[in-house]
Amino acid sequence: VLDYVGRADYQVKIRGFRIELGEIEARLQAQPGVRAAVVVAREAGAGRQLVGYVSGEALDGAALKTALSSVLPDYMVPARIVVLERLPLTPNGKIDRKALPAPDQLVASAQHVAPRTPAEAALAAIWADLLRQPNIGVTDNFFELGGDSLIAVQLVSRIKRDLGHDLPLNRLFELTTVETMAAALGLESETDKRSDDIVAMLDMLKEVELSDE
């Protein structure tokens, strides 16, 4: 059992919950291979989110998030955990929180995959509106973009209202990208079917026009 008594200036409020950043850091540092860890609250498109930074040997941010999910409540699990070769330090040897790179700077260097179909474009537009994030890529992760359980409920409602599809809330934790969501909801096949119907209708109109000549 880890008991942590933190400083007041390392307390933040996220989604209505008061959180001790030091408690999350202690859980991160307890993970195998982690040499140093720090957690900060950053402004995201849809509000503030927790971001963890770690350094160590053979670390994987997604695996660390999974490990934290088993010992911390959902609202205390960082939206992103960034693995760095080393954490920036101040001249007196403490972690320099102000020098930590913004996750968006790191994500910007990753390959952006734009929506390729009308279905993906429709979903990406809903994501962009709710997350207040422009240029949603089809492989971007909903939760890494700042999504949380409250926004997830809104997303399910918007998909039902705008696209006419029911998405169980628990499926959202599996379908975390526009790409997988569009495929799972069958939106791609519906788009293809509508396109086929339009082509068939145009062919019928041409036949009618030819028969009238």
TrEMBL record:
SUPFAM superfamilies in the cross-refs: Acetyl-CoA synthetase-like (SSF56801), ACP-like (SSF47336)
GO BP terms, alphabetized: amino acid activation for nonribosomal peptide biosynthetic process; monocarboxylic acid biosynthetic process; secondary metabolite biosynthetic process
Keywords: Phosphopantetheine, Phosphoprotein
Database matches in PROSITE patterns: CARRIER, PHOSPHOPANTETHEINE
GO molecular function: phosphopantetheine binding
InterPro entries linked to this entry: AB_hydrolase_fold, ACP-like_sf, AMP-bd_C, AMP-bd_C_sf, PKS_PP-bd, PP-bd_ACP, Ppantetheine_attach_site
Domain Carrier: 114-189
SMART domains: PKS_PP
One GO cellular component term: cytoplasm
Name by which UniProt lists this protein: Non-ribosomal peptide synthetase
